[in-house]
Amino acid sequence: MSNDALLVLDRVCKSFGPVQVIDEVTVEVHAGKVSVLLGENGAGKSTLIKMIAGVHSADSGRILMDGKEVQIPDTKASEALGIATIHQELNLVPSMTIAENITLGRVPRRFGIINRREMRRIAREALDQLGLNLDVNTPVGDLGLAQQQLVEIAKALSLDARVLILDEPTAALTNAEIAGLFEVVNQLKTKGVGMVFISHHLDEIAAIGDFVNVLRDGKFIATVPADTPENELVRLMVGRDIDAQFPRQTATPGEQHLLSVENLSVGALQNISLSVRPGEVVALAGLMGAGRTELIRAIAGADKYTSGTVKVAGKKLPRNDVAAATRAGLGHVPEDRKTQGLVLDASVAENIGYATMASTAKAGLVDRKGQRERAEKVAARLRIRMGNIDQPIRSLSGGNQQKAVFGRWFSAGAKVLLLDEPTRGVDVGAKVEIYELINEITSSGGCVLMASSELPEVLGMSDRVLVMSQGRIAGELATNEATQDSIMALAVSNVHREDEMGKK
Ligand SMILES: Nc1ncnc2c1ncn2[C@@H]1O[C@H](COP(=O)(O)OP(=O)(O)OP(=O)(O)O)[C@@H](O)[C@H]1O
Ligand SMILES: [Mg+2]
């Protein structure tokens, strides 16, 4: 171990009940460097950084700062040591404003009275660092996921930390926002801040990292330079090669439309019509704010639309009725699993079982035993990593929670899957498993409508691409003829036209 490390986790261990999730891991953080933490879903990355953040305490091992052992029993102690953490799952209070959230726990006071003006100034300064043009008086709950993520980042930046931990900060961000964040990270490097960075986007590692610590199953595997080739990183991470990143098997599409949407309008969405045939995967591409999530939610029955119709297998669905949509064979994997997809305190089995609770009930009673058994099977098929099926879903790693949302529709035998950023936060190996589930749905006569910001995923897994721009479908491309450039050209098409009109 070198002596010049800013922070060292020295042979730390952590168990939850009988399950050891961190096993004698040693990791160093150096001033002015970004150390990447890499590992599959459930490898222990978040658990490890929570020991530095004061959320979990280590069962054994030491934490050293500037070479001296420190105790970090709670988050306050962590902050007092100059450690700021951006957690994977957001920690903002939705009902409070941006300014209140950013200054939470250190509200400026003047003569004992909350100094709101100072509070807003601190928040404004933090947002400016990221070039964020948001009103600091906005309640955080009114923001989209990406903006909330950026506020969380701004909050950490405003703490002037010596150590900054970023747990999947880029998962919900656009390329432009990621570039902005990386600029800030580079500035912090020159100021000597030591950083830990976690991401499932392998291409970000060389762009921002200095070295990579690989974890597998809670064990330390290796430290390698950040410019290590991606396939080598994958091998270290999953312990095997992954040959096909996008294993799409095209199915011959059926004749009848399985999903059809006619002239649907709601909010900024204007007269959307589309149809998907059995066996097809149709991707919805577009920029953030193009209306993909609104469209998916309206079709799924999660939101009310003002006009138009949605049909499954020719049968019209009532508006804004999730239960009816579920009965008709529709399944929805939402953008934000934490607030929309899961009941966090319920067990894995219950979360997987929600969509089939009514249809499998016997004499009006929930078939708990059957639910559990079916959930066990699905969890095994999806290789959901957990201690057991009765543990609260909250305690699963982020990527494994996402698999569980998938598992719900899989066990319900959904015919039409509506996916909104289905592999966000999912590791490379588990992504392939999710793609194989998509293949299975389409080869058995189902269909998929998938909103995705990951263009390689759009190109690798769909048959057709509908590109949305400003609430409309700007164009359609056959995937085998599409490129990232042709998709992007359509995605910005309306935007440019309006810009030009604005200039005249
Ligand atoms: N509070 C808890 N109680 C029980 N088990 C837990 C708890 N927190 C984490 N675990 C388990 O510890 C293991 C590691 O989880 P962790 O969240 O650290 O993974 P991760 O590497 O961050 O994964 P991801 O990439 O999906 O975010 C998982 O198997 C998880 O289920
Ligand atoms: Mg994690």
Automatic annotation (TrEMBL):
Q: Which UniProt keywords apply?
A: ATP-binding, Nucleotide-binding, Repeat, Transport
Q: Which residues form the ABC transporter domain?
A: 7-242, 253-495
The record's section on InterPro entries has: AAA+_ATPase, ABC_carbohydrate_import_ATPase, ABC_transporter-like_ATP-bd, ABC_transporter-like_CS, P-loop_NTPase
Kindly give the SMART domains that the UniProt entry links to this protein. AAA
Could you confirm whether the keyword Secreted appears in this record?
A: no
Q: Which SUPFAM superfamilies match?
A: P-loop containing nucleoside triphosphate hydrolases
Keyword Cytoplasm included in the entry's annotation = no
GO molecular function annotations of the record: ATP binding
Tell me what this protein is called: Ribose import ATP-binding protein RbsA
Organism, scientific name: Glutamicibacter ardleyensis
Task: Give the gene symbol.
Answer: rbsA
